[in-house]
Amino acid sequence: MNRSTRKIAIIGAGLVGSSCAYSIVNQGICEELVLIDINHERAVGEAMDLSHCMNFTNTRTKIYAGTYEDCKDMDIVIVTAGPTPKPGQSRLDTLRAGAKIMESVVSGVMESGFQGIFLIASNPVDIMTYQVWKLSGLPRNRVIGTGTSLDSSRLRTILSEIFEVDPRSIHGYSLGQHGDSQMVAWSHVTVGGKPILQILEEQKERFADIDLDSIVEQTAKAGLEISKRKGTTYYGTGNSLAYIARSIFNDDYRVMAVSTILDGEYGEYEICTGVPAIITRDGIKEIVELNLTEAEESQFAQSNDILRDYMKIIGY
Protein backbone atom coordinates (compact mmCIF):
# COMPACT_ATOMS: atom_id res chain seq x y z
CA MET A 1 0.00 0.00 0.00
CA ASN A 2 1.42 3.40 -1.01
CA ARG A 3 1.36 5.95 1.76
CA SER A 4 2.84 9.42 1.75
CA THR A 5 4.18 10.81 4.99
CA ARG A 6 2.98 14.31 5.83
CA LYS A 7 5.98 16.41 6.83
CA ILE A 8 6.24 19.85 8.43
CA ALA A 9 9.24 21.95 9.43
CA ILE A 10 8.89 24.80 11.92
CA ILE A 11 11.59 27.46 11.79
CA GLY A 12 11.71 29.25 15.10
CA ALA A 13 11.33 27.21 18.28
CA GLY A 14 10.26 30.11 20.47
CA LEU A 15 6.85 30.52 22.09
CA VAL A 16 4.88 30.73 18.83
CA GLY A 17 6.79 27.91 17.14
CA SER A 18 6.57 25.58 20.13
CA SER A 19 2.85 26.39 20.64
CA CYS A 20 2.26 25.57 16.98
CA ALA A 21 4.20 22.31 17.34
CA TYR A 22 2.16 21.39 20.42
CA SER A 23 -1.09 21.96 18.51
CA ILE A 24 0.18 19.92 15.56
CA VAL A 25 1.19 17.01 17.77
CA ASN A 26 -2.07 16.96 19.74
CA GLN A 27 -4.17 17.11 16.59
CA GLY A 28 -2.12 14.50 14.74
CA ILE A 29 -1.71 16.79 11.75
CA CYS A 30 1.47 15.23 10.39
CA GLU A 31 3.65 12.15 10.80
CA GLU A 32 6.99 13.99 10.83
CA LEU A 33 7.80 17.31 12.46
CA VAL A 34 11.22 18.97 12.50
CA LEU A 35 12.08 21.99 14.64
CA ILE A 36 14.77 24.39 13.42
CA ASP A 37 16.18 27.25 15.46
CA ILE A 38 19.31 29.37 15.56
CA ASN A 39 19.60 28.04 19.11
CA HIS A 40 19.82 24.37 18.18
CA GLU A 41 19.79 23.19 21.79
CA ARG A 42 16.49 25.00 22.34
CA ALA A 43 15.05 23.09 19.37
CA VAL A 44 16.42 19.83 20.78
CA GLY A 45 14.81 20.52 24.14
CA GLU A 46 11.43 21.37 22.60
CA ALA A 47 11.55 18.24 20.43
CA MET A 48 12.34 16.07 23.45
CA ASP A 49 9.55 17.64 25.50
CA LEU A 50 7.01 17.21 22.71
CA SER A 51 8.05 13.62 22.06
CA HIS A 52 7.06 12.80 25.65
CA CYS A 53 3.46 13.70 24.77
CA MET A 54 3.06 10.69 22.49
CA ASN A 55 1.69 8.39 25.15
CA PHE A 56 -1.21 10.81 25.69
CA THR A 57 -2.18 11.42 22.05
CA ASN A 58 -4.18 9.38 19.55
CA THR A 59 -1.47 9.43 16.88
CA ARG A 60 2.29 9.19 16.75
CA THR A 61 4.41 12.03 15.36
CA LYS A 62 8.12 11.71 14.75
CA ILE A 63 9.66 14.88 16.22
CA TYR A 64 13.28 15.98 16.03
CA ALA A 65 15.51 19.05 15.87
CA GLY A 66 17.06 19.61 12.47
CA THR A 67 18.65 22.04 10.03
CA TYR A 68 17.66 23.76 6.80
CA GLU A 69 18.82 20.68 4.87
CA ASP A 70 15.85 18.79 6.33
CA CYS A 71 13.45 21.14 4.52
CA LYS A 72 14.19 19.49 1.17
CA ASP A 73 11.29 17.04 1.29
CA MET A 74 8.96 18.93 3.65
CA ASP A 75 5.38 19.53 2.51
CA ILE A 76 5.04 22.69 4.60
CA VAL A 77 7.64 24.99 6.11
CA ILE A 78 6.19 27.15 8.88
CA VAL A 79 8.20 30.28 9.72
CA THR A 80 7.76 31.86 13.13
CA ALA A 81 11.30 33.21 13.55
CA GLY A 82 11.59 36.96 14.05
CA PRO A 83 12.05 39.74 16.60
CA THR A 84 9.40 40.29 19.25
CA PRO A 85 8.12 43.90 19.50
CA LYS A 86 9.45 45.68 22.57
CA PRO A 87 7.10 47.64 24.83
CA GLY A 88 5.69 50.56 22.86
CA GLN A 89 6.53 49.04 19.48
CA SER A 90 4.03 47.85 16.89
CA ARG A 91 4.43 44.83 14.63
CA LEU A 92 5.63 47.17 11.87
CA ASP A 93 8.41 48.58 14.05
CA THR A 94 10.29 45.27 13.85
CA LEU A 95 10.36 45.35 10.04
CA ARG A 96 14.07 45.90 9.33
CA ALA A 97 15.26 43.31 11.81
CA GLY A 98 12.63 40.84 10.65
CA ALA A 99 13.54 41.29 7.00
CA LYS A 100 17.20 40.42 7.68
CA ILE A 101 16.18 37.26 9.50
CA MET A 102 13.79 36.30 6.71
CA GLU A 103 16.49 36.68 4.06
CA SER A 104 18.61 34.14 5.90
CA VAL A 105 15.69 31.77 6.48
CA VAL A 106 14.45 31.74 2.88
CA SER A 107 17.97 31.34 1.54
CA GLY A 108 18.60 28.33 3.77
CA VAL A 109 15.26 26.69 2.99
CA MET A 110 15.43 27.16 -0.79
CA GLU A 111 19.03 25.96 -1.00
CA SER A 112 17.78 22.63 0.38
CA GLY A 113 15.64 22.16 -2.74
CA PHE A 114 12.33 22.86 -0.99
CA GLN A 115 9.29 22.95 -3.30
CA GLY A 116 6.43 22.82 -0.81
CA ILE A 117 4.26 25.49 0.81
CA PHE A 118 5.54 28.33 2.99
CA LEU A 119 3.30 29.27 5.90
CA ILE A 120 4.40 32.52 7.55
CA ALA A 121 3.60 33.90 11.00
CA SER A 122 6.60 36.21 11.52
CA ASN A 123 5.59 39.84 11.97
CA PRO A 124 4.82 42.12 10.28
CA VAL A 125 3.27 39.08 8.65
CA ASP A 126 1.84 40.68 5.50
CA ILE A 127 5.16 42.23 4.51
CA MET A 128 7.18 39.18 5.58
CA THR A 129 4.94 36.95 3.47
CA TYR A 130 5.45 39.21 0.46
CA GLN A 131 9.21 39.11 1.04
CA VAL A 132 9.21 35.30 1.21
CA TRP A 133 7.31 35.17 -2.08
CA LYS A 134 9.81 37.47 -3.74
CA LEU A 135 12.89 35.73 -2.36
CA SER A 136 11.70 32.15 -2.86
CA GLY A 137 10.48 32.44 -6.43
CA LEU A 138 7.58 30.11 -5.59
CA PRO A 139 4.11 30.63 -7.11
CA ARG A 140 1.94 32.96 -5.05
CA ASN A 141 -0.49 30.17 -4.16
CA ARG A 142 2.29 28.41 -2.21
CA VAL A 143 3.26 31.33 0.04
CA ILE A 144 0.65 31.99 2.73
CA GLY A 145 0.68 34.22 5.79
CA THR A 146 -1.54 33.85 8.84
CA GLY A 147 -2.81 37.35 8.04
CA THR A 148 -6.11 38.23 9.64
CA SER A 149 -7.08 34.64 10.44
CA LEU A 150 -6.50 35.21 14.15
CA ASP A 151 -8.05 38.69 13.99
CA SER A 152 -11.17 37.20 12.40
CA SER A 153 -11.28 34.62 15.20
CA ARG A 154 -10.94 37.36 17.80
CA LEU A 155 -13.74 39.29 16.09
CA ARG A 156 -16.05 36.30 16.25
CA THR A 157 -15.20 35.72 19.91
CA ILE A 158 -16.04 39.33 20.79
CA LEU A 159 -19.30 39.16 18.86
CA SER A 160 -20.21 35.80 20.41
CA GLU A 161 -20.15 37.41 23.85
CA ILE A 162 -22.41 40.23 22.68
CA PHE A 163 -24.94 38.06 20.86
CA GLU A 164 -24.61 35.07 23.22
CA VAL A 165 -23.97 32.45 20.55
CA ASP A 166 -21.13 30.08 19.77
CA PRO A 167 -18.31 31.88 17.85
CA ARG A 168 -18.58 29.19 15.16
CA SER A 169 -22.13 30.38 14.43
CA ILE A 170 -20.74 33.77 13.46
CA HIS A 171 -19.20 34.36 10.03
CA GLY A 172 -17.23 37.39 8.96
CA TYR A 173 -13.71 38.62 8.36
CA SER A 174 -11.22 41.25 9.33
CA LEU A 175 -9.41 42.35 6.17
CA GLY A 176 -6.21 44.18 5.32
CA GLN A 177 -3.18 44.55 7.56
CA HIS A 178 -2.69 42.24 10.52
CA GLY A 179 -2.39 45.30 12.73
CA ASP A 180 -3.96 48.60 13.68
CA SER A 181 -5.29 49.51 10.22
CA GLN A 182 -7.30 46.33 9.63
CA MET A 183 -10.98 46.72 8.87
CA VAL A 184 -14.09 44.57 9.20
CA ALA A 185 -16.37 43.92 6.23
CA TRP A 186 -19.53 44.42 8.29
CA SER A 187 -21.71 44.04 5.20
CA HIS A 188 -20.68 40.35 5.16
CA VAL A 189 -20.84 39.53 8.89
CA THR A 190 -23.66 37.17 9.83
CA VAL A 191 -24.93 35.65 13.08
CA GLY A 192 -26.59 32.31 12.44
CA GLY A 193 -26.81 33.26 8.78
CA LYS A 194 -28.56 36.59 9.48
CA PRO A 195 -26.70 39.81 8.55
CA ILE A 196 -25.48 41.57 11.68
CA LEU A 197 -26.46 44.98 10.29
CA GLN A 198 -30.03 43.71 9.91
CA ILE A 199 -30.05 42.41 13.49
CA LEU A 200 -28.85 45.77 14.82
CA GLU A 201 -31.50 47.60 12.80
CA GLU A 202 -34.33 45.31 13.94
CA GLN A 203 -33.28 45.24 17.61
CA LYS A 204 -32.13 48.80 18.21
CA GLU A 205 -33.09 48.89 21.87
CA ARG A 206 -31.46 45.58 22.77
CA PHE A 207 -28.17 46.44 21.05
CA ALA A 208 -28.23 50.22 21.45
CA ASP A 209 -24.81 50.26 23.13
CA ILE A 210 -22.99 48.44 20.34
CA ASP A 211 -20.32 50.54 18.62
CA LEU A 212 -18.98 48.76 15.54
CA ASP A 213 -15.91 51.00 15.31
CA SER A 214 -15.08 50.17 18.91
CA ILE A 215 -15.34 46.44 18.12
CA VAL A 216 -12.91 46.85 15.20
CA GLU A 217 -10.46 48.64 17.49
CA GLN A 218 -10.88 46.01 20.19
CA THR A 219 -10.20 43.30 17.62
CA ALA A 220 -7.10 45.01 16.25
CA LYS A 221 -5.65 45.71 19.69
CA ALA A 222 -6.45 42.32 21.26
CA GLY A 223 -2.87 41.14 20.82
CA LEU A 224 -1.54 44.27 22.51
CA GLU A 225 -3.91 43.79 25.45
CA ILE A 226 -2.67 40.23 25.87
CA SER A 227 0.96 41.34 25.63
CA LYS A 228 0.42 43.98 28.32
CA ARG A 229 -0.59 41.21 30.70
CA LYS A 230 1.71 38.30 29.79
CA GLY A 231 4.46 39.76 27.63
CA THR A 232 3.49 38.32 24.25
CA THR A 233 0.92 36.16 22.47
CA TYR A 234 1.41 32.66 21.11
CA TYR A 235 -1.47 30.23 21.66
CA GLY A 236 -3.80 31.87 19.15
CA THR A 237 -1.13 32.22 16.46
CA GLY A 238 0.20 28.72 17.09
CA ASN A 239 -3.24 27.19 16.76
CA SER A 240 -4.10 29.23 13.65
CA LEU A 241 -0.93 27.90 11.99
CA ALA A 242 -1.88 24.33 12.88
CA TYR A 243 -5.42 24.95 11.60
CA ILE A 244 -4.16 26.19 8.22
CA ALA A 245 -1.66 23.32 7.95
CA ARG A 246 -4.41 20.78 8.68
CA SER A 247 -6.64 22.36 6.04
CA ILE A 248 -3.82 22.06 3.51
CA PHE A 249 -3.16 18.38 4.23
CA ASN A 250 -6.87 17.52 4.32
CA ASP A 251 -7.53 19.39 1.07
CA ASP A 252 -10.41 21.02 2.94
CA TYR A 253 -11.30 23.79 0.50
CA ARG A 254 -11.92 25.79 3.66
CA VAL A 255 -12.31 29.56 3.39
CA MET A 256 -10.29 31.62 5.85
CA ALA A 257 -8.71 35.06 5.98
CA VAL A 258 -4.99 34.77 5.24
CA SER A 259 -2.19 36.94 3.91
CA THR A 260 -1.92 36.36 0.20
CA ILE A 261 -0.39 38.16 -2.76
CA LEU A 262 -3.00 40.01 -4.79
CA ASP A 263 -2.74 40.24 -8.56
CA GLY A 264 -5.79 42.22 -9.57
CA GLU A 265 -8.16 40.92 -6.90
CA TYR A 266 -9.95 43.81 -5.14
CA GLY A 267 -8.23 46.04 -7.72
CA GLU A 268 -4.90 45.58 -5.89
CA TYR A 269 -1.51 44.56 -7.29
CA GLU A 270 1.92 43.78 -5.85
CA ILE A 271 0.79 43.59 -2.25
CA CYS A 272 0.21 40.89 0.33
CA THR A 273 -2.76 41.49 2.62
CA GLY A 274 -5.47 39.71 4.58
CA VAL A 275 -8.42 38.48 2.51
CA PRO A 276 -10.59 35.34 2.53
CA ALA A 277 -9.17 32.54 0.40
CA ILE A 278 -9.92 28.89 -0.33
CA ILE A 279 -7.22 26.64 1.18
CA THR A 280 -6.43 23.27 -0.47
CA ARG A 281 -3.59 20.77 -0.80
CA ASP A 282 -1.94 23.10 -3.32
CA GLY A 283 -2.12 26.10 -1.01
CA ILE A 284 -4.42 28.92 -2.06
CA LYS A 285 -6.89 27.63 -4.60
CA GLU A 286 -8.74 30.91 -5.08
CA ILE A 287 -9.07 34.33 -3.49
CA VAL A 288 -12.64 35.14 -2.48
CA GLU A 289 -13.53 38.67 -3.60
CA LEU A 290 -16.22 40.06 -1.32
CA ASN A 291 -18.57 42.68 -2.75
CA LEU A 292 -17.52 45.48 -0.40
CA THR A 293 -19.44 48.69 0.12
CA GLU A 294 -17.85 51.94 -1.04
CA ALA A 295 -16.85 52.80 2.53
CA GLU A 296 -15.36 49.34 3.08
CA GLU A 297 -13.41 49.56 -0.16
CA SER A 298 -11.93 52.85 1.04
CA GLN A 299 -10.95 51.39 4.42
CA PHE A 300 -9.39 48.34 2.77
CA ALA A 301 -7.41 50.54 0.36
CA GLN A 302 -6.17 52.74 3.22
CA SER A 303 -4.92 49.69 5.12
CA ASN A 304 -3.05 48.48 2.05
CA ASP A 305 -1.53 51.92 1.47
CA ILE A 306 -0.08 51.79 4.98
CA LEU A 307 1.47 48.42 4.17
CA ARG A 308 2.94 49.81 0.94
CA ASP A 309 4.57 52.68 2.79
CA TYR A 310 6.32 50.25 5.11
CA MET A 311 7.24 47.89 2.27
CA LYS A 312 9.40 50.69 0.83
CA ILE A 313 11.61 50.47 3.90
CA ILE A 314 12.92 47.10 2.73
CA GLY A 315 12.95 47.94 -0.96
CA TYR A 316 9.55 46.79 -2.22
Automatic annotation (TrEMBL):
The protein's name in its UniProt record: L-lactate dehydrogenase
Active site, renumbered: 178
Entry-linked CDD domains: HicDH_like
Positions contributing to substrate binding: 91, 123-126, 151-154, 233
Subunit structure: Homotetramer.
Residue ranges of every copy of the Lactate/malate dehydrogenase N-terminal domain listed in the record: 7-145
Subcellular location, principal: cytoplasm
Top-level taxon of the source organism: Bacteria
Gene Ontology molecular functions: L-lactate dehydrogenase (NAD+) activity
Function: Catalyzes the conversion of lactate to pyruvate.
Localization (cell): Cytoplasm
InterPro entries: L-lactate/malate_DH, L-lactate_DH, L-lactate_DH_AS, Lactate/malate_DH_C, Lactate/malate_DH_N, Lactate_DH/Glyco_Ohase_4_C, NAD(P)-bd_dom_sf
Keyword field: Allosteric enzyme, Cytoplasm, NAD, Oxidoreductase
Source species of the chain: Bacillus bruguierae
Residue ranges of domain Lactate/malate dehydrogenase C-terminal in the record: 148-312
Binding locations of beta-D-fructose 1,6-bisphosphate: 156, 171
Listed pathway(s): Fermentation; pyruvate fermentation to lactate; (S)-lactate from pyruvate: step 1/1
Binding positions (NAD(+)): 16, 37, 42, 68, 104, 121-123, 146
EC number per UniProt: 1.1.1.27
Pfam families: Ldh_1_C, Ldh_1_N
Family according to the record: Belongs to the LDH/MDH superfamily. LDH family.
Activity regulation remarks: Allosterically activated by fructose 1,6-bisphosphate (FBP).
